[in-house]
Amino acid sequence: MTLRFEVDSFELVPAGPDTMLLRIAGRWVGARRERLPTPLLLVDDGRRSHRLSPLPSPDDSAPLAGPDGPRWRAAFSAPAQLVGGPHVAYALDAGRGVIADLPRPTGLGATWGRPAAQRGAPEVEPEPAAAPAAEPTARPPRRSRRGETRAQSVQLAALAREAAGLQAQLDTERRARADAERRAAEAHALAERAAADAQHAAELASRAEAARIGAVDALADERLRTSERAVAEEEREQARRRELAEAADRAQRATVVAQEARRALAEREAEAAAAREQSAEALRAAQAAEARAEAAEAARRDAEDRAAELLATRQRAERAEGERDHATLAAQAAERRAEQVEQRSRALEERLADADARIRALEAELREAQARAGGGGSPSGGAGMTPMASGAATALTDLSAVLRRERAAAVTLFALAAAAASALLAGGLAQLLG
Prior knowledge:
Layout: E1 4-14, E2 19-29, E3 34-35, E4 40-44, E5 49-52, E6 64-65, E7 71-79, H1 80-83, E8 89-93, E9 99-102, H2 116-119, H3 142-176, H4 180-214, H5 219-373, H6 387-433
Antiparallel strand pairs: 1-2, 2-7, 3-6, 4-5, 4-8, 8-9
Helix pairs in contact: 3-4, 3-5, 5-6
């Protein structure tokens, strides 16, 4: 879908003696939603094209285009000479090659600069507000003059109400515009309108005065006019009553709108209070979560410390187990050595027993030999022993000494093995408990 501009209104109003105000409203329609650059107003007067930037306003000057684009409004200030020609063309330049043609503007300034015959406005010379010096001798009655004055007052009041309405519209335009220059231009335009309306009212008053002067010639016509004026006064009174009723209705609607606004404000305040309460609850929840996180962090550090202690205990247990195994091996080696010593001791005891048996055999042989030799006496000490018996006794003594040494060494080995095992067990238990 090609981007296009749908025109809702395009007005040209005077903003001063030499300045015109072009007000445009519409929608930018496109296939997708996008923010366009600030459009420029192109004014082609037949000689060249002029680019006008929009006046500052509370609305966003950069329009939003889309399938259902929002309403966009802008105002442009232009010289009266530029837009006063009959062959002026208008268009909007939205950038990126997008040019949207515009129709001719409407409004009070649409015929600015044209001749009066083209505008369709009759050239009316203002009539004098007062009667000329040469007046007919016949004068209307005093009551008729009061009625005419009353009619003029009613007309002036209507004009005043119309001027008040214009002033209210001017105030609305002032509130809608943030730029002081535009507000001044609008105020000047409305002042020009009020001046034109006042001139028109003066023309009407002059015409009424002329009609009143012409009506003094015939009393019947005057009575007829008086009756017509009475009817018109009644109609105006009814119109005033309707206006008052409409004003009361508008005031009632304004009261309803104010009440709805107050209810909406109360609802927003309640929503704000609920939002603050939710924010406080969220803050408390965040603080509780932070406390839980700190507790979890402390528990995690405690668990890490316990894990480290458990790892250190396990390592000490493993070292104690290694030392216990080493001590066990050492004890087993000591037991093996003790068994070897025991075996050697048993071998030595067997040798000692064998030597003792041989010694006893030798002593028996010796005693038998002495008996046969007739000595008759028993040997005393070792003096009477034979060299063989003496050598056997010495060998027996040596074997006994070796046996005692082996037994002492075995006892020492057993004691050392037991002490080493006890020390290793005590050290392992201390490390486990530590």
